[in-house]
Predict the structure.
Amino acid sequence: MSEATTFRERLASAVERNQSLLCVGLDPVLGKLPASLRAPRDPARAIVEFNARVIEATADLVCAYKPNLGFYLAHGAAGAAALEETRRRIPAQIPVILDAKVGDLGHTSEAYAAGYYDEWGFDAVTVNPYLGEDSLEPFLRRPDKGVIILCKTSNPGSGDFQDLPVGDQGLPLSLTVAERVSDWSGRWPASLGLVVGATYSDQLAAVRQRCPDLPILLPGVGAQAGDLDAALRAGLDRSSAGLIVNASRSIIFAGSDLGEAWAEPVRAAAMALRESINSARGNHSPA
Amino acid sequence: MSEATTFRERLASAVERNQSLLCVGLDPVLGKLPASLRAPRDPARAIVEFNARVIEATADLVCAYKPNLGFYLAHGAAGAAALEETRRRIPAQIPVILDAKVGDLGHTSEAYAAGYYDEWGFDAVTVNPYLGEDSLEPFLRRPDKGVIILCKTSNPGSGDFQDLPVGDQGLPLSLTVAERVSDWSGRWPASLGLVVGATYSDQLAAVRQRCPDLPILLPGVGAQAGDLDAALRAGLDRSSAGLIVNASRSIIFAGSDLGEAWAEPVRAAAMALRESINSARGNHSPA
């Protein structure tokens, strides 16, 4: 990973090399690991072994990996060590997005950015916009890194605040965030992107209309069961790309009811989803 | 810490025992540690030693401690181990608030709550409301724990989204959050609270008016230089309490330009701030 390239360029290279918009979420849950990796092992060790085999089985099929911090910190400092080791196991040509949904301010935000980017070596981080632009400055000013800002999340209750009409125009808060991020994108060196849940394809279309050039991280197509085709139609950009389609449980636990051969169904699930996405990209590509 | 008591009860006990609304933020920054603790040491070890002495110097002066996750994860998994050890060094009668500003959903939110409460042993966690009520359920349903929700943060840019007028009444988003949290507070078993920066005393007064009974975590009185007296006048509840007044750098680095005796100024700074707060509580107590 050369520091001379941007997150956006590294992502585009991986999309091209693997012909894939698929991002695999490395979200280990002990109770769902294949039996051969479960107790009586040390949880952190089981997580690292599991992730390493998932990575091995899918590294030629994905455009990115996305570990979610919560599944690691659930196991205390040992879980953090498992995340550190997982990061090291990912081949250098695949960008890694830390899903931390971080949102803090001032010196703390500096500490997070230095930590996640330089100490941990992540290529991009998901962040929460609630604290405002200045809170994100330590992330936004990094030309080599990616900052993916929560816009409309995939959960049923995301509307509690994200759908509230704000300001004179009564635009939903999530679209107001999208417009601001589009503005930030022209003013800051980092590669910016947005998180929009596949479960809300109308809002996704509205975000894409306002932000034609921003990459959108799309959770909610796997276990959360958003309609993949509708989401792709709504979210693909003019070049039939611009989406990072995340799936976690539907891929990584695909073989967990099997014995030692559990990694084969993981690879098959990743391959099938990559194919579905590519097929839809072909169908929706502009003339 | 008996599981039979609520966070609110444990906080009230500590307030009473130490006659204090002061919360010390355990936010270590390597470059600001006393020289005797700096290089060539292992950073994580230096952090633990520093925190242990700060705790020793202040444990009879505070109502809570608040480590911010960012200052630990900045040092990778070793920093996470330092946080774990720091937690263990805090006496059982002082509640510990993890400042993680977490906001995630579904299974991830479950993982965070189980992790921060049960694996790490924190008494309360700060959370971000942007993802909505359902995203916070794993935190809200814990009768023994505290959930402190970001409302109006202390940074200059907090207004970017938090001040936007929402809905028919044009209430700022931060006050809309405060009203929702007041509603959640009647429906969920956890002890709820709000974060409002001392730098915005008008908004603090408006939050206190709408939420007369919720504890408010008040950052921004120390290094961030909010007006302490104005903030206390705006934020104290009817019993001249209801605030958790956080100070970090102005306390913990008070002796960093000294030699071995650096913990004495730390204690003196904590004592002085506790006194200022108590004096203002006396002045503003209702007749």
Chain A has a mean pLDDT of 94.
